[in-house]
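Regression test attached.
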Amino acid sequence: MDNWTFGITMLVVGMGGTLLTMWFLSLLMGVLKKAFPYKKEEEKKSS
Amino acid sequence: MLDAIVNGLYGLIAGFSHLHWSNPIMIGVGGLLLFLAIKKDIEPLLLLPIGFGCILVNIPLAGLMEEEGFLRTIYEAGIATELFPLFIFIGIGAMTDFGPLLENPRIFLLGAAGQFGIFLTLALALALGFSKLDAVAVGVIGACDGPTAIYVTSKYAPHLLSAVSVAAYSYMSLVPIIQPPIMKILTTPEERKISMGTVKRTVSQRTKILFPLVVTVIGGLIAPQGLPLFGTIMLGNLMRESGVVSRLTKASENEIANIVTLLLGISIGATMDGKNFLTPQTLMVLCLGFIAICLDTVCGVLFGKLLKVLTGGKVNPLIGAAGISAYPMAARVAQREGQKYNPKNFLLMHAMGANTGGQVGSVMAAAVMLSVLKGMGII
């Protein structure tokens, strides 16, 4: 594979892949927050 | 008798007679690193052992990096096997509170944008004639994360290890100087004044415990080549958040991290042998590393501006600059710059969220990069 193809592939797939992975993780975090919402009692317990 | 005395005396000056022209220069470089660590307090935990290691390895005839030399033994045990960066990652995970990031998960995206400099620099290095794997090692300086840079470079371009690690750690400590001018150029005074309000504590402990598990499993399935990187961070974080292994957590963030930092630093310094280090390639690596961190900041701030538009002006683009791995320096820079234009603005916790996102982002970007390389059959 020539350097030009390699560079473009890394730019597109690398940047895109990182962004998509982080976006997917942010969605999962949102789901987790909804599934296990914060309760006031936790704050009382920890204090 | 006289011959024996002369030979004995020669033994005492042999070190001087074997000095290569590059050795005194590198001893000076080591001295400079020690000066920065001791006098200027710049990353002393790393620069001090690196500087001293650099001095040690440039003293001829000691053979410290030759077979059975003590520095070679440490290097082989921890750098060649990639264990030291991974031990450091367990400590980082144990020290990091991902709470501010979990409060506002969309900030995760800033942690991704802050890594774009890796890929842009990789392309630039290729254009400048670096080989594919060398370009990967140079690009990874843009992760702004020493252990990640060391992990990737020691694996795929070990001959660049000293230049890459010195660049990674030096520029990381220069973040407070490098970032503000870029932040100022790319944002308007009105944008810098945007207040993001206070961060409310809305994340349950269960979410905090599940976070490292989810990142490990999902991240591992997407980018298995980088699993050692984020798997170790997430192990450290799980120990912290579970609260049931406080002895292990404390050991990871103190004793283990301290010992490994010492050994890591001295073995990185030991790779700075003058004959190998003083080359035009090293200079190019240092220049490209600087560009990488500038590009990270540019991409982070521009993505912050995009988020500002998408959220109807609720995001201050300055926190985009914190989407790199230099923790907590980058977050403090965003806070300081924000307060310059709006003294009542308190961006720190939001910037901390972006900054911890940058920590996950940097290892994830490296993991994605390695998996893409594997997919293309390069590694």
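Expected vs. actual: identical. Residues 209 and 241 of chain B are 6 Å apart (CA to CA).
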